[in-house]
Amino acid sequence: MVLHMPRPFKHPKTGVYYFRMRVPVDLVGAIGKREIKISLGTKEPAAAKELFSAKEQQVTKHWRLLRTKPEPLSQKQIVALSGKVYRKIIEKFDDEPGSPQLWRNIISLAERVAADGNWEQWYGPSADELLLSEDTVTDHESRERLIQQVHQTLLLAAAQQVKKAEGDYSPDPNANRFPPLKPMGTKAKAVTLTDLFKLWERDHLADNGAQGTPADFLQKIEDFKKHLGHENAETVTGLNVSEYCDMLRHDRGLSANTVNGKYLAAIRIIFRVGLAKSRIKADPTANIKVSVPKAIKERPKSFTDAEAKVILACALGDPSSLGQMSELNKLACRWVPWICAYTGARAGEITQLRREDFSEEYGIPFLKITPEAGSVKTGQYRMVPIHPHLVELGLIEFVQSRPQGPLFYIPNDRKRKPGHTQAASVRGKVSDWVRDVAKITDRRVQPNHAWRHRFKTVARDVDIAPRYMDAIQGHEDGSASSDYGENTMKALYREILKLPKYDVKAKMRAH
């Protein structure tokens, strides 16, 4: 998801900068429009940027208050609030109060306003400004009482200014009239890291994002919360984030790549979402960087020919040689490496395959990798022709011998953490088997994902065009041309046939 950060909008004709922002969906009804547009009154970019920031904070606070449940104000709270108006008038004109007649005219105008009943027009904005200054939301009755109290306070302040204008600076009889302003008890709830995570998760899942990503992100966010000792997103600073990244690197010994690409990435994404949705005022991760040194490459990411043959030969062995595991896990160890070798698919995409994901077109057997079966990184289905050697090994017969549903596990309703699926568990079993039984122990190569790298290597050797490699493996090159036309089953099968047969022998084949 691409996030566009709010910035001043320059009017194409006048050159004046504007504050323009889309109203959150849940507040459109309350505000009455889908977008707000307010002139910043300047044509200077630097000034517009500062004014935009101040306006954004004001608007963000207003939206946050709109989401807060209104609560009534007591008489004492109302008088305390109006005291802010009194002190503002007294202090602003303390040295130069102006002429006595000016203040008498203000008193006369205020009395006419009250007589005409124009309370809202004259005092409504002041009452709302008072409430906003205290992050307070109140009900209609309390607001009406506050408006009337502001009127009375204005009369008192104006009368005191008349005395000063006439040269009377004796002690103010109203100085102690207003009680101290205490927290109103209706302040908007602080935005938490959990709130920001849920905002991101909602959009991620709505956009058909990978099902396992929220669980991974949440683990990182929970860890950050533990480090902070709180989860108030509005008080997190850049220094907090920087110190957390340093702790992960130097105290826990995590690699710079892991800290930058996983932990900092998760924190940065939820703050950017919060900023884009006007839930927070600033992104504390904006200037935080974790330098990632260039990786030292000591060997290929793909299996070597020897490693590939060892794994595939081991998979063909007697079931008793596959280790101590359930029969379905043994079947996964038997078939997943072979299918990955000839498709370049992700191991998790294979462990979630169902019987119904196998079919035939133009006499060509194929398997379908689809989000219907489970997580697919791109969110797109694809059909992959089955190499003749897999047919020769008995893959089709194995699939047909299984009941409808997943091939390598029996679905159950046991509750799991998001992302910790049964297919993921089977994938882990295959990974462990590659290490423990097939004895591919080199930690510089991944026991499952290395098939994906190897497929690309072999495909290049036999001159499979990149567009067909990507179509088979589910990679996207980002070009516009890739969205035109279809990669037909005939074309994909023609390319699959270019892959050489793995000449691997075993004493006993296990289906």
Automatic annotation (TrEMBL):
Q: Does the keyword Transferase apply?
A: no
CDD domains of this UniProt entry? INT_C_like_1
**Entry keyword Secreted:** no
Q: Where is the Tyr recombinase domain?
A: 298-509
Domain of life of the organism in this record?
A: Bacteria
Give the record's keywords alphabetically: DNA integration, DNA recombination, DNA-binding
Q: One Pfam annotation, family name? A: DUF6538
Family affiliation: Belongs to the 'phage' integrase family.
Name of the protein: Integrase
What is the organism field in this record?
Answer: Sinorhizobium chiapasense
